[in-house]
Here is the input.
Amino acid sequence: MQYVNCNLCDVDDTRVITTQDNYRVVQCSACGLVYLNPRPTPEMLIKLYNDYHIRNGKDANTWERLMKKNFMETSALLNRLFPERRRILDIGCGYGYFIKMMENAGWAAVGIEPSSRTSGYAKDKGLAVIETTIDDAEFPEESFDVITAFYVLEHLFDPLSAVRKIFTLLKPGGLTVLRVPNTTPIVKFLAIFKIKNNLYDLPFHLYDFSLKTIRLLFEKAGFSSIKVIPGSPTFPNHYGERAISLISGTLSQILFSISNGKLLLPGTSRTIIASKLDRGVKGS
Here is the structure.
């Protein structure tokens, strides 16, 4: 196991939120970042990830159904913002459904995926997928107009370094769209009633981001134009999980809309849209 300091402020001062499956989740007393500590080493997690995409009877079609609304929503946004289709990178592209969607819309789409099982599936479909991680990916600076990552950031060993790399890989005026969960409020609520759970999906999720810490992360990485929205809910395979996702996700969107974008429901996933401003243009 590996003991680490806070990824955002490098402080080693935490309090325990919960222990699930013998893994301890802590919260930084300085900045509020929630993370797994201690955590498996990279070598340990690589072995655990071999069967990650087929856990609990999941397959390629399951993952497509799970993320389809998110993919369609993001695709529509990007097609509207970039009427002249450009170059896009999808980090943790899995089976390649999103890059296939963007390719069909006229984009030059590339994906990176560390799992040999899922990246092999995507490559067999003729998609431009590289079996690697964002840390090891080798692209020239300012290679992409758009970079996306759906439920990836919480899995990374060093999310701050990853978002900084995203910043360098984006062209000036480029855009990144990322999707992350926010599990801590639900876990704290369930703890009041002593309800056991593994909502953090340990040890695969190494971090959990609040509105405050996700903004801080992107600011530290160099982004000055940052928008956080609810986004469409996922469509889990299990009926109970699906009901919770659809109800909470829809409620979050309604509250966000009627509050004119001021209220984000705690405990629901959110989408981060951040721009890399053109050189010489100062953020507001």
